[in-house]
């Protein structure tokens, strides 16, 4: 599945107990339509995203950056301490494509570093 949206706040790297790192960020997707009365209705959907392949992307996932993500979506529900039921959408990201709004100097450098590391780790056997 692909989604296109804007990063809602700067991404953060979290280190798990097994020393594996994950980049967490959220994306907002805006949609609009006209109802039967002809009124324009705006709707925003938020996804909590996780990227496991490289922590270096944290430098390019800044608030406001327009990104296209490839991955899979899952829903979650929980009950808060106040007894209210909440729901959210998770997006496990396997590919990130920048469209605009990133930190330009870091974008080029980090994207190059990621490609170089990928090339070093992509052995034909």
UniProtKB/TrEMBL annotation:
**Which Pfam families does the entry link to?**
SSB (PF00436)
Keywords attached to this entry:
DNA-binding
Q: What is the species of this protein? A: Flavobacterium taihuense
Q: Which GO terms describe its molecular function?
A: DNA binding
The domain of life is: Bacteria
From the Swiss-Prot or TrEMBL record, give the protein name: Single-stranded DNA-binding protein
């Amino acid at each position: 599945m692909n989604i296109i949206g804007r990063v809602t706040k700067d991404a953060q790297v979290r280190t798990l107990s097994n020393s594996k790192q994950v980049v967490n960020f959220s994306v907002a997707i805006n949609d609009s339509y006209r109802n039967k009365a002809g009124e324009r209705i705006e709707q925003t959907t938020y996804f909590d995203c996780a990227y496991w392949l490289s922590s270096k992307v944290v430098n390019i996932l800044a608030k406001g950056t327009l990104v296209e993500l490839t991955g899979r979506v899952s829903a979650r529900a929980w009950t808060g301490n106040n007894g209210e039921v909440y729901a959210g959408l998770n997006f496990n990201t396997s590919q990130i494509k920048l469209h605009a709004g990133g930190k330009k100097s870091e974008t080029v450098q980090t994207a190059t570093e990621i490609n170089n590391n990928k090339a070093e780790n992509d052995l034909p056997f």
